Amino acid sequence: MNRADPGDLAVKIANPKTLEFQVVRTSLLPGLLKTIRENRSHPLPIRLFELSDVVFKDTTQERQTRNERHAAAVWCSKTAGFEVVHGLLDRAMRMLEVPRIGKGDKDKPRGYYIVEGDDPAYFPGRAATIYYRSPPSIQTTLNDVRVPAVSRDTIIGTLGVLHPSVLAKFEINYPCSALEFNVEVFLKKRS
């Protein structure tokens, strides 16, 4: 995926059955790209999605790992479809009742926005980072005064046109656009 592994994200399996499963997945995109590779004979466009867990090392947890629920989608066609995955993100957020806001909309307490990104898995200039501004929580001071905390903008995912070198590694000859984001932040909000 053209992403360097810093060595502190992926969970390694002690006794893997095969070499392919030495680490627990930290992204859903490789699995979707393998599925596209195995279904190359199908007519274009090929559209896939997955909603599943990924696992990360987390030394603050008892088991030293943390699960996150991610949503991912890939669009493969004769032309790249950045606007397709961007529209899919917009639709998913509308279904989650998360409004789209601008990066500079500091008066908006909650929402999502995208900013041009530089993830090496994507084609330069055709990638974006997805940010989520969570609603401010209420904090209680020592005098039992309730004051709103500051909203925080956090990165929840990426989208864009996949880099040709990534597609070549999966033996895919057509351009693909992809989207992956963490839905865990929305699950916590509803519970």
UniProtKB/TrEMBL annotation:
InterPro entries hit by this protein: aa-tRNA-synth_II/BPL/LPL (IPR045864), Phe-tRNA-ligase_IIc_bsu (IPR045060), PheRS_beta_core (IPR041616)
One GO process term, biological-process aspect: phenylalanyl-tRNA aminoacylation
A single GO cellular-component term on record: phenylalanine-tRNA ligase complex
Domain Phenylalanyl tRNA synthetase beta chain core residues, every copy: 3-182
GO molecular function per UniProt: phenylalanine-tRNA ligase activity
Pfam families xref list: tRNA_synthFbeta (PF17759)
Protein name listed in UniProt: Phenylalanyl tRNA synthetase beta chain core domain-containing protein
Organism: Boletus reticuloceps
